[in-house]
Design brief:
The protein is of the alpha+beta class. It has two domains: 4-64, no CATH class; 75-172, no CATH class. It is 34% helix and 24% strand. The chain has four helices and eight strands, in the order βββαααββββαβ. The strands form three sheets. Strands 1-2-3 form a three-stranded antiparallel beta sheet, with helices on both faces. β2 and β3 form a beta hairpin. The radius of gyration is 20 Å and the shape is globular. It binds zinc ion. Zinc ion (ZN) binds at residues 13, 15, 66, 68-69. Residues 13, 15, 66, 68-69 line the site of zinc ion (ZN).
């Protein structure tokens, strides 16, 4: 398959990184310089369906690091950390919406304009996210706004997070 490169911005910090998927579908995280080299290779192999490198150069920007991730060694490590943080946040969100085998009674089934349905938080309920720590040691703190979780519910959610992500990775406030 044709390799692809794209810039990725997580919802968990202000970093930006290049993700490269090779012809076998294997992902890696690369520097802007590597992205440029790979793009030339992709263009040479697939000139019909690839933007010309000189067009791409105009849009080229360096990889961005947020202050919290500034100490990480390289883009590969940054990529892995970003994936892990994103996985934690989306995993907690899934649990809050009842997709992980237990319900905290925070969600409702709502209806789209076209009649299809989806699961979302009940009206007035939202989640606050906060990260503490640096580098590979960032901790996700989260709390629910608009509903009071009981101690039992908080324990259920905290135990789920400890099992799924490791102790001290997510703190339920
Ligand atoms: Zn970052």
């Amino acid at each position: 398959m044709k390799p692809t490169i794209y810039r990725w911005r997580p919802t968990t910090c202000n970093c930006e990184i290049y993700e490269y998927k090779d012809e076998n579908g294997v992902f890696s995280y690369i520097t802007p310089e590597e992205a440029e080299q790979f793009l030339v290779q992709i263009y040479n192999q697939y000139p019909e369906t690839t933007k010309k490198p000189e067009q791409w150069n105009k849009q080229k920007k360096p990889t961005k690091r947020c202050p919290e991730h500034a100490s990480l060694l390289n883009d590969s490590q940054l990529g892995n950390v970003m994936i892990d943080e994103d996985r934690r946040k989306s995993g907690v969100l899934r649990a809050l919406l009842g997709h992980e085998g237990f319900s905290l009674n925070l969600h409702d089934t709502k209806t789209n304009a076209d009649g299809t349905s989806y699961i979302d938080f009940k009206n007035g309920i939202s989640v606050s996210w906060q990260w503490t720590g640096l580098g590979t040691e960032r901790i996700l703190q989260m709390g629910v706004t608009g509903a009071n979780l009981t101690t039992n519910q908080k324990n259920t959610l905290q135990n789920f997070c400890n099992t799924k992500f490791g102790v001290t990775k997510v703190v339920v406030l």
